[in-house]
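Quick illustration, no need to memorize.
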Amino acid sequence: MTANLRLIVGLGNPGKEYAATRHNVGAWWLQRLCAEQNIELQNTIKFQGASAKATICDALVYCLIPYTYMNLSGKAVASIANYYNILPNSILIVHDDLDLPAGAIRLKIDGGHGGHNGLRDIIGALQTKNFYRLRIGIGHPGNKDLVSDYVLQMPNKSDKLAINAAIEESLLELPSIINGNLEKVMDHLHKFSA
């Protein structure tokens, strides 16, 4: 169906003050993956983030958590993709999603940015929307004027439990994600958080 994934990016904002906030759930996902796979992320100035080269499920995969702020994520993603000649349809961006309830999780390819500044910048930097996204629901505050503050706050206890459960469930699908059997993953995650 597709090229095997060669790059996984977990989005977030840099700094301790943002580490536990809703906007950083993409980074949480990648950190959990690295912990489970014994992958050590290293500060990599040329990629503007913490990166690693790893063998996951018998495939060579690059991992990246950008150190840029969310709305500049494209610079980091494009720099590592260009350096290793990674095509956009071999990239998975893991990110928070306001349009999904906390703990819902979806895998998709293509589509717009949905108002997500990190995705908007990545689409601009790669000059295409043709990459994979693992969307982790964080819920919505109910008023668009509250969104900026909401994403930069910590989730409440029940939301955090739901988000962590979604992260764990999606990581069980890692072999299928890495090897490109993504229709199966899409179906499973949709059923998990329907």
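The chain has seven helices and seven strands.
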